[in-house]
Amino acid sequence: MMNQTFSPEQARGVASSIKNKGHNARDIINQLDREIKSVEGWWQGESAKAFVDEFHQLKPSLDKLVQCVDNISISLNKVADIKEQSDRDIASQLRK
């Protein structure tokens, strides 16, 4: 059987990396939004409207993805906190 150790420090590092990727995704979505809006300046008609509308329909899902990534980061940080507190509690009980 494999013995695995949970490292709160490592978990926080991964959480930070995940959070940064969420911020990067948010930046990309904002860039896409600006670029899609700029299309309206040089492309008119029903096809342009359909193109812009498609992005606007997808954007809430993209926003939700970013929120989910942020929530994963927050959860991983909470797990690290709980693990550290649990270790402190066990040590405290053993020292009594």
Automatic annotation (TrEMBL):
Q: What is this protein called?
A: ESAT-6-like protein
Looking up InterPro entries in the UniProt record yields: ESAT-6-like_sf, T7SS_ESAT-6-like
What organism is the protein native to? Paenibacillus mangrovi
The annotated region (Disordered) lies at 1-20
Q: Which family does it belong to?
A: Belongs to the WXG100 family.
Q: Which NCBIfam families did the record assign?
A: WXG100_ESAT6
Q: Name one Pfam family in it.
A: WXG100
